[in-house]
Amino acid sequence: MKIIVTGGAGFIGSNFIYYELKNYSDEIICLDKLTYAGNLETLADAFKNPNFKFIRADISDRKAIYKIFADEKPDVVINFAAESHVDRSIEDPELFLRTNIIGTSVLLDACKKFGIKRFHQVSTDEVYGDLPLDRPDLFFTEQTNLHTSSPYSASKASADLLVQAYQRTYKIPATISRCSNNYGAYHFPEKLIPLMIINALHDKKLPVYGTGENVRDWLYVEDHCAAIDLIVRRGKIGEVYNIGGHNERKNLDVVKTILKILGKSEDLIEFVTDRKGHDKRYAIDPTKIKNELGWTPQTNFDDGIKKTVTWYLENRAWWEKIISGEYKDYYAKMYDNR
Ligand code: NAD
Ligand code: TYD
């Protein structure tokens, strides 16, 4: 089988490529534009595998995508490629619309034109909006209405609707997964967990938005990869699967846990101006994927966060290179005088 993994030079896509290369002998093509978030060094070990190939392309470039489909004739396309950071989407929504919506529609058109055995869209629980903090009994199910808050989540929800429309109208054999916040190796330093680990290691302030009461449902990235693999190989066409489950933490508690693991003082915490439209709580009900495909998360947050901190300690060269480049300007723009 030949599988195109779009966005495979990013955080989750690269972990997924390693998962597939370890467990199967399928041909894997990573198709990635290499934006600020894409990093070929992340794929250094994959390049040693003869089943792996990399193609640089933008998913919203119709001509380039059609040529790749014509040349490669993939059996499966898994779309991880996206602009993925909520704060950047608040600063500049347009690129999110181009990549996340137009890019997905171009991939779907290519699937329609050239034929495909399976198209899988990697989506997010953020398409469901948020849950109130005082209702811990509420969870997102696959039936929860789409109700987005940020330009990022609006663009991901739009892409989901297109996938469902193409599935129904053109019979594209598609599935969608909506997962909670991932963490683990190769997570780009702009996101909460790596940002806090790296700042703490430099004894720099840890910028917690608002009061730090917001809740996220943390999913160890390898558990996410296992779930996507199951959906692609055994999931039912036309279905949506929620991935996550019962690893909810307040942001402030996540930050305190990281400080404790690193033996740093909580005095490093600094409460800063809240994110605009900040979603309060995300929480997944994973009953469907558990019942239909037998998936449950294997890594609880306490173990996963220790493994993640260890990874950042052991892979300094990977993130030091990132934070010494254009990321410096991003950090200054987003956090100086916040
Ligand atoms: P990431 O930002 O780390 O990586 C995105 C990758 O996509 C990068 O390699 C980038 O170069 C590539 N890319 C961006 N625009 C492209 C384009 N136009 N054409 C081709 N490649 C392009 O993101 P991630 O955290 O790995 O997220 C992967 C997917 O999972 C995204 O679709 C995201 O919406 C979804 N998701 C992520 C999380 C999370 O916690 N990280 C949670 C839920 C859903
Ligand atoms: P993030 O990693 O950006 O993921 P998402 O917004 O997709 O959930 O943020 C996770 C949570 O952490 C979110 O509630 C915002 C908060 N946050 C901070 O408090 N400080 C920060 O510097 C960042 C990047 C995020």
Percent range of helical residues: 40-55%
How much β-strand is present in the residues? 15-25%
Using only C-alpha atoms, the radius of gyration works out to: 19 Å
Low-confidence stretches: none
List the SSEs and their pairings.
Blueprint: E1 2-6, H1 11-23, E2 27-32, E3 52-56, H2 62-72, E4 76-79, H3 86-91, H4 94-114, E5 118-124, H5 151-170, E6 174-179, E7 182-183, H6 192-201, E8 206-209, E9 215-217, E10 219-220, H7 221-234, E11 240-243, E12 248-250, H8 251-262, E13 269-272, H9 287-293, H10 301-314, H11 316-323, H12 327-335
Parallel strand pairs: 1-2, 1-4, 2-3, 4-5, 5-6, 6-11, 7-10, 8-13
Antiparallel strand pairs: 9-12
This protein binds nicotinamide-adenine-dinucleotide and thymidine-5'-diphosphate (TYD).
Describe, in plain words, how this protein is organized in 3D.
With 338 residues, the chain is of the alpha/beta class. It has 12 helices and 13 strands. The strands form 4 sheets. A 7-stranded parallel β-sheet has the order 3-2-1-4-5-6-11, sandwiched between helices. A two-stranded parallel sheet has the order 7-10. Helix 2 packs parallel to helix 4 and helix 6 (192-201) packs parallel to helix 8 (251-262). The longest helix is centred in the first third of the chain and has 21 residues, at 94-114. The radius of gyration is 19 Å and the shape is globular. The protein starts with a strand and ends with a helix. The relative contact order is 0.13. The structure holds nicotinamide-adenine-dinucleotide (NAD) and thymidine-5'-diphosphate. Residues 6-7, 9-13, 32-35, 37-38, 58-60, 80-84, 99, 103, 122, 124, 156, 179, 181-182, 188 line the site of nicotinamide-adenine-dinucleotide (NAD). Nicotinamide-adenine-dinucleotide binds next to helix 1, helix 4 and strand 5.
